[in-house]
Design brief:
CATH superfamily of the largest domain: tricorn interacting facor f3 domain
Largest sheet: 8 strands, mixed
Strand order of the largest sheet: 6-5-9-3-2-12-15-14
Distance between the termini: 35 Å
Enzyme class: hydrolase
Number of strands: 31
Keywords: Aminopeptidase, Hydrolase, Metal-binding, Metalloprotease, Protease, Zinc
Shape: globular
Cofactor: Zn(2+)
CATH class of the largest domain: Mainly Beta
Radius of gyration: 28 Å
Protein name: Aminopeptidase N
Number of helices: 25
Oligomer: single chain
Strand content: 15-25%
Pfam family, one: Peptidase_M1_N
Length: about 900
């Protein structure tokens, strides 16, 4: 039976949580693995939870054929239980129960990539959030934790490798061409952390000695032919283990730790206990196929999944409303890990800026749309739709605010108490907050609002200076707009890190009555807890320039009236690298908004010399790290500019941004050429921080230079493409060629380079994903070109990576072309969502989000968007994943 479709999906509310009627102590499973029909036998020992209001024994199942069900040795007939959708109820069960369940599943037909499915002839599982119910009937909820023993049986020739959670305790031949492997996980875990992998795989393995002296086995499993691409993932795993020992005193608790890479995966990776399953995108890397961004991504994701071993596995979520308890905390940990590996102050700042750019561009937009929800949601229809940037990135910012308020040592004390209290438990976000409060003695009651209130707070800063008394006053006021289901918001507890700069750009010693114990410091963390507060600083000899929200100390929008001169001072001098970058972004945004309005009004476009000279000074300042200069010189994206408007005009924004790029190149051409030459990285490719920084600035310079269409610039890009010995430089050059607006001869040469790139890498799936993505976001690519690329023999909607590389990239990364006036982009979007809904509802729902803010666009575009949304809504057998997104968008 199939339970994937819900005509009228019910809403699940956090307030309705009821503890399970039965706890599970042990789970024994036996798999007879076959791609067409896999038999699963499960034995579950259970005991009644006398504290629960739920009296029935409740199990969940989806897309299963139930072969047999026995309770305490007796076969249950159909009248002994009821099944309603995905829910089975057994009434009047005794207090002690042993359930024996046999099910049949069909991995090859499971295109949802949830549960047990086939990938390139191998078996893979993905059980978070509710995939385990596609394997067997089970109380599939995160607060039900048990110990698992799993027997895997399969044809030895077809599936020579059999992997499971925990430790391998037995393996051997069965005498009929099949073999077995028995795995035991010594730690209790929820069903969403169950995993198995079987197939033809090879591994890189190393014995690693933990800080305690215990030796563990580390393995990275991949398909044959990819073994030469695993070293960076292995190094990242070892770095993660070492970092967690040193930073948080947390040790790997198993005898082995395994990573498996698969090309068919809905997510980036999954933290199953001891058997992490990864999208190949976050494992495979060498200089031939991977860019610097890929290397950084692998390091971050490997760290993230490993850190889940404690923040997510050893201590897990009571229910899915608490998802950020593990995800927000672990994102914070992986961000700190990556920053610590760089080591330098500037390196940490660059990492922070990169993380904040994602938050602002994607999460702030989500907070302003129909899918806005708190970090701890109050309700959902489909839990897969809540693996969002709010849960992850904003959740991380909430954790970072604890760190900011409590300091390094204070935060560590809170973490230690959290583990001491809750190891082996399924808990709530409030339990984490309580550990932070109790360990520090701080009252964090008001801080709970970061979990319960949605939306992005706005902090308005107003200042006054009295020269006679040398007194400076800073008034901070906070507000938060209405969001779906929440019209009124109470004040948040907002840490505002700040400093004051004198006329020369130097930090001023701060004397604030409210923080007298810290007198003389040049950086203070003000705590804004009321709707409005005024902070008074004394002994300020001249009117200063405020540097507020240093290191982006809270996920808020800061409204402050800076003059261009003040922003220029901050950009040139602020001791806080984040705010130095932020000043440049404010200068750029101010001009891009003005120019967009000029485009709409048909006025002549001009770029002022002050802005040009400010960027020139940054570009030529070799005392600044190249990676930092690259960030300052990178203009706000079209999506970020769109957030400045009540009504978005994608074409006008694109025209304005392209004008600024061209104007900067016209005025700074010599400096860009100099930066290009000064940041070459000859010799063997290495993904170290210094080399990556140089390549980032060099390739940004090339990108700018390609905006100025002349023969020498085209030749520069063509030469780099032809001679590049690493993917970072090769792809950057190909992007420059593809976006070059030159002669027909140059266009033909660029097309030939695209063909050569495909020919050289057609057997490397991850590189061909880049090839599709590069074309999808090119400013010459329209809907017709996307449809043409969809007919390419290498394209398929069935693989999430490939679907995202072209269709998602176009819909989300090429706004001026996607939002075509004739509505053709929306018509394509509707077709794609409908088709993906049949194959993989999770992927379809993510693409559906592309139109969730349709009411922010002009009426003529809204009409086309509404038709597309209604077309999807009218689709028969619409999954609840997609139905929730479309329903909320249309109701907005």
């Amino acid at each position: 039976m199939s339970n994937d479709i819900a005509a009228t999906p019910p809403t699940i509310f956090r307030k309705d949580y009821v503890a399970p009627g039965f706890w599970v102590d042990t789970v024994e499973m036996g798999f007879d693995l076959d791609l067409h029909e896999t038999h699963v036998a499960t034995r579950i020992t259970m005991r009644r939870n006398h504290d629960s209001a739920e009296k029935d024994l409740v199990l969940f199942g989806a897309s299963l054929k139930l072969l047999q069900l026995r309770m305490n040795g007796v076969n249950l007939k159909k009248n002994a239980y009821t099944i309603d959708g995905e829910v089975m109820r057994i009434a009047n069960a005794p207090d002690e129960v042993t359930l024996e369940i046999e099910t049949l599943i069909k991995p090859l037909k499971n295109t949802s990539l949830s549960g047990l499915y086939a990938s390139n002839g191998n078996f893979i599982t993905q059980c978070e959030a509710e995939g385990f119910r596609k394997i067997t009937w089970f109380p599939d909820r995160p607060d039900v934790m048990a110990k698992y023993t799993v027997m895997l049986r399969a044809n030895k020739k077809k599936f020579p490798i059999l992997l499971g959670n925990g430790n391998l305790i037995e393996e051997g031949d069965l005498g009929d061409g099949r073999h077995f492997a028995k795995w035991e996980d010594p730690f209790k875990k929820p069903s969403y952390l169950f995993a198995l992998v079987a197939g033809k795989l090879v591994c890189q393995e190393e014995n690693y000695t933990l800080k305690s002296g215990r030796s563990v086995l580390l393995q990275v499993w991949v398909e044959d032919g990819n073994l030469d691409k695993t070293q960076h993932a292995m190094d990242s795993l070892k770095n993660s283990i070492r970092w967690d020992e040193e930073r948080f005193g947390l040790e790997l608790d198993l005898d082995r730790f395994m990573i498996v890479a698969t090309s068919d995966f809905n997510m980036g990776a999954m933290e199953n206990k001891g058997l992490n399953i990864f999208n190949t995108k976050y494992v495979l890397a060498n200089s031939r196929i991977a860019t610097d961004v890929d290397y950084a991504g692998i390091e971050s994701v490997v760290g993230h999944e490993y850190f889940h071993n404690w923040t997510g596995n050893r201590v897990t979520c009571r229910d899915w409303f608490q998802l950020s308890l593990k995800e927000g905390l672990t994102v914070f940990r992986d961000q700190e890990f990556s920053a610590d590996l760089v080591g330098t102050t500037t390196g940490r700042a660059v990492k922070r800026i990169e993380d904040v750019r994602v938050l602002r561009q994607v999460q702030f937009s989500e907070d302003a749309g129909p899918m806005a929800h708190p970090v701890r949601p109050d309700s959902f229809v489909e839990i897969n739709n809540f693996y969002t940037v709010t849960i992850y990135e904003k959740g991380s910012e909430v954790v970072r605010m604890y760190y900011t308020l409590l300091g390094h040592e204070g935060f560590r004390k809170g973490m230690d108490l959290y583990f001491a209290r809750h190891d082996g438990q399924a808990v709530e976000c409030d339990d984490f907050r309580a550990a932070m409060a109790d360990s520090s003695g701080r009252d964090l009651t008001q801080f709970e609002r970061w979990y319960s209130q949605s939306g992005t707070p706005r902090v308005k800063a107003e200042t006054t200076y009295d020269a006679e008394t040398q007194t400076y006053q800073l008034t901070l006021s906070q507000s938060c707009p209405a969001t779906p289901g929440q019209d009124e918001k109470l004040p948040f507890h907002i840490p505002v890190a700040m400093g004051l700069l004198d006329a020369e750009g130097k930090d001023i010693a701060l004397h604030c009555d409210a923080y007298s114990a810290l007198a003389g410091a040049t950086n203070l963390i003000l705590e804004l807890t009321e709707a409005s507060q005024t902070f008074t600083f004394t002994g300020v000899a001249a009117k200063p320039v405020p540097s507020l929200l240093r290191n982006f100390s809270a996920p808020v929008l800061l409204d402050i009236e800076y003059s261009d001169e003040e922003l220029g001072l901050l950009l040139a001098n602020d001791s806080d690298p984040f705010n130095r970058w932020e000043a440049g972004q404010r200068l750029a945004t101010r001009r891009l908004v003005k120019l967009t309005k000029a485009v709409q009004a048909g006025e002549t476009l001009e770029l002022d010399s002050m802005f040009i000279e400010a960027l020139r000074a940054t570009l030529v300042n070799e005392s600044l790290d190249p990676s930092f200069r690259e960030l300052v010189l990178t203009l706000p994206s079209e999506a970020m500019i769109a957030e400045e408007f009540d009504v978005v005009d994608p074409q006008a924004i694109h025209t304005a941004r392209q004008f600024v790029r061209t104007a900067l190149t016209q005025h700074l051409r010599a400096e860009f050429l100099s930066a290009y030459e000064a940041n070459l990285t000859p010799g063997q490719y290495t993904p170290d921080a210094i080399s990556m920084a140089k390549r980032a600035l060099k390739n940004l310079a090339l990108s700018y230079l390609s905006a100025w269409s002349d023969e020498s610039t085209f030749e520069l890009a063509q030469t780099q493409f032809d001679e590049a010995e690493n993917m970072t430089d090769r792809l950057a050059a190909l992007s420059a060629l593809t976006n070059f607006h030159g002669t027909e001869t140059q266009a033909n040469a660029a097309a030939q380079s695209l063909k050569k790139f495909y020919k050289d890498f057609k057997k490397e799936a991850l590189v061909i994903d880049k090839w599709f993505m590069l074309q999808a976001v090119a400013d010459t690519t329209d809907v017709a070109k996307v449809r043409e690329l969809m007919e390419h023999k290498a394209f398929t909607l069935g693989n999430p990576n490939r679907a995202r590389s072209l269709t998602f990239s176009f819909c989300n990364g090429n706004p001026s072309r996607f939002h075509a006036a004739d509505g053709s982009g929306y018509a394509l979007w509707a077709e794609l969502v409908i088709e993906l809904n049949k194959i993989n509802p999770q992927v379809a729902a993510r693409l559906a989000r592309s139109l969730d803010r349709w009411k922010k666009y002009p009426l003529h575009l809204q009409e086309h968007m509404k038709l597309a949304l209604e077309k999807v809504a009218a689709t028969k057998k619409l999954s609840k994943d997609v139905a929730e997104v479309i329903g909320k968008a249309l109701a907005a």
